[in-house]
Task: structure prediction
Amino acid sequence: MTSIDVGDGTDARDGLMTLVIAVVEILIDALEREAIRRMESGDLTDDEIERLGTQLSTIEGEIEQLKSDEGIEPGVDDLRNDLDGLVNDAIEQLHGEPTAARRPGYSVFGGDGE
Result:
């Protein structure tokens, strides 16, 4: 995959919505990994952990509802899989085989890979 086709005409809205939701899901995944890292390192109080968990759960619920309402669930999953492949290909081209510290999902904020 070298490009992202969001469609044209009437398909453009669904394509753009699919792209936006996929990007938001990727950001939520990164936030969850960072929250877990901070929780495990003891940087968060119990109240902060509870509040963060509630907020992330609410956001995920809203995203799932939006995907269902718009009928774009399969498209989002397909795009995320394509993006994962694109990232893996780019990493392999830049650095050879991906290592655990360079795989998608690696936290640039630190974590187990450091």
